[in-house]
Amino acid sequence: MQVAHRGHDGREPCDSAGPAKQKQKQVCKHITHAEEMRRKADGVWLSIGTLAQQHLENLYCSTSRHDVQLVDKAGSSWTLNLNFMDLKPSQLYDRVRRLSNSSDSSRNPYFPMEWQVYWEECGEWLVYEEPVRWELLAAFEKGMWNHAFKLRGQLYNVDLKTLTQRNVRTGFTRRILHCPVFRPPWRLAPHLRTGPGTTLSSPSTVPGEDPQDTYWGPYPASWVPKAPVGTMYTLAEVAPAERAYETTCTLFHKTLAEDKVLVLAVYRVRNDYLWQKYCGQKKFMAQSRPRAVRRCLERHLFHGTRASKVQPICEMNFDPRVSGENGEAYGQGSYFAVDASYSHTYAKVDEASLCHMFLAKVLVGRSVRGNPVFRRPPLAHDGCLYDSCTDYAKKPQIFVIFDSCQCYPYFLIRYKLLSEPVAVDS
């Protein structure tokens, strides 16, 4: 029987790397974990790329994957067994090891490794209920060989070395799994200290990053450089410690699970020409509405696209004139979605196995159910045009915009499917 235990190789790299140890603009690369490959020729352990570590750690913490594919830029490919951490073929590298912090919160109060225990039922891994879960985690922490517990009148014995659970009366045996809980960098960021006096950016401190405010001034993230002469826009990577990164990822993962996709980077898009057009339209639309209605004027919505369309969108905005490439069920305009999972269907994987999605500012205003023949919103009862079209009037999930002044490509999310191979040198 295959042993389904995912531990580490004994070294605990960062128990002393708490917030007080973090120097300005320096973040420990191994806050909770690190993955390394062993070169077979001399036995030297070599670190893999930062993004590859996030990808592999996510897979390592998953209950659904036991074998994963690793690739490098030279075209080499390996299969890694996550339970035994061996590589095949093994001519160049023969093993992978995972180094992690301890789970002792007294030694590392900010970044202790969190673990979970699962039992297998019909091919699915289910979390043990309390207090059994807590008892098993404590037994693993103490290094015990076995642990017995009683549940619903049945006595069970768990072998903590072979990771099997046996019903003492019937002898029925099932597998269990002991693996860590994945925590992406942005979840750890609030515990990091990035320097004296440094504060995290948040929607309350960056005008316009809350869609309910009425800001229509200059581009709010003033620290992002203006576009160089001869170019239209600047892409600036958002740090995981920024509140904007957290809110973007939280919204993104609301419908795209963290065990399915991995966010690699979030970028702010600064295009002063498009921003001025957008703010002018926002001001115009807001002035004709009561103050209470203005708070519902703008929404942050997703738009998935191909890699080849990212630059044109950043330069010239979403273009309603090219509607029809991905359907026009609710009108001939630019489509935006409340859920990232819907927009993901249009974010095609590129040659580098990456996907791209915008989190856009959209002036939805007054909406009405759309129609494929619409080239603009229809007239409302008051004789004025609606501002946008939707799929459903009561609880819309899709919005269609017919005027490019009503949208702005605010954030760009670069991500990949966890089912894609791990690029070890990324």
Automatic annotation (TrEMBL):
Keywords: Glycosyltransferase, NAD, Nucleus, Transferase. Its EC number is 2.4.2.-. Belongs to the ARTD/PARP family. It is found in: Nucleus. One of its GO terms (molecular function) is NAD+-protein mono-ADP-ribosyltransferase activity. Residues 1-26 are annotated as: Disordered. This is Poly [ADP-ribose] polymerase. It comes from Chelonoidis abingdonii. Residues 101-178 form the WWE domain. One of its GO terms (cellular component) is nucleus. SUPFAM superfamilies: ADP-ribosylation (SSF56399), WWE domain (SSF117839). Residues 1-14 have a biased composition (Basic and acidic residues). It comes from the Eukaryota. It is an enzyme of class 2 (transferase). The keyword DNA repair does not apply. Residues 219-426 form the PARP catalytic domain.
